[in-house]
Amino acid sequence: MDLRDEIGRLVGDKNARHKRLVQYVVRQIHAGRRLASVLEDPYVTNRATTLERRALLEEPEVVMAGGQEIEVLRGQLEQALRPG
Asked: What percentage of the chain has pLDDT greater than the value 90?
């Protein structure tokens, strides 16, 4: 399974942990925090792998709240996921 397949599997995940992460990220952005800062927040990093954080960037609610930061962060997290 490639990276895109893994991300697709996680997007829209109905488990409560993933839904809480999506809600937390959106709430923090609306409170004035930058998306990059929220993704590095211990609340997020303690509950999500790099792949799971990358998948958060495909969630419609996060995309709408995150704005232009999304593309840059997608690239950074994908780079972190590449072997080597």
From this structure: 50
